[in-house]
Design a protein that fits this description.
This protein is mainly α. The protein has 2 domains: 53 residues, no CATH class; 205 residues, no CATH class. It is 65% helix and 5% strand. The protein contains 10 helices and 4 strands, in the order ββββαααααααααα. The strands form 2 sheets. The protein has a two-stranded antiparallel ribbon. Strands 3-4 form a two-stranded antiparallel ribbon. The longest helix has 38 residues.
Amino acid sequence: MRFDLPENSRCFYHRDRKPIAICSECGAFFCAECGAVVGGDRVLCKKCIGREFGPEKWEECFAGGGVLGFLRTLRWVLLSPSRFFHSIEMRKQVSSVVMFAIIMEVLGSIAVVIYGGSADYFNLFLGAELAEKVMPYINLSLILVSPLIAVASLYILSLIYHLLSKPFGGDGSFTGTLKVIGYSSAANLLIFIPWIGGFLSIFYTLILYSRGFARIHRMGPLRAAAFALVPVMALMLILVVVAIALFQSIEGNLPYLLAPGS
């Protein structure tokens, strides 16, 4: 779609940017960050997208502790990620998205404990006998420290992606990157699906990343997908190397750990 815009026009939401389109609902000019094509033929600014498609968002009810707002946001992120990321304000406070990420990390940890996912890893590294003794403490610790893990991973991942966004042609803000990472943790809910939940969660997290990065960094779909995938693949490679090294270390010391009186 092409629009004949006045030479001196500016985005309604960013007075320092030139617009690329006119909202078909309210007539506001908006830049690439502030609107989207909806339904194939309608061009809407982010406020009109929010009014038409957006249920009460977590950010709008966070101060009041709205449980319904959280559930609606969770549903919206999972079912309509593109519309969700186009409707939220990327430069506002981040306390709401941090709390959202904490809640989703706690839920994900509970799912791992329920299905015994952590037990499989510790059986591998410690052996079934030793793992059986320590698993109740490990599971409790996993749930208790999950809020700290959520906050640390949210900011570390956001920093990594924000620094890597420039080589991929991205120009979004750190706050916007953090919000994409935080709200994409909604995919942790899929961990509750038996057997394949963990894989589905990782796969859908990457989809949410790509949708969010396409919006805030103004990337094409393919570039956003590649940008979402590369750091995750690098991180998985690092984790595999660390896991192998840890396994070799534990395997070498296992006789001493299981020896009587050790």
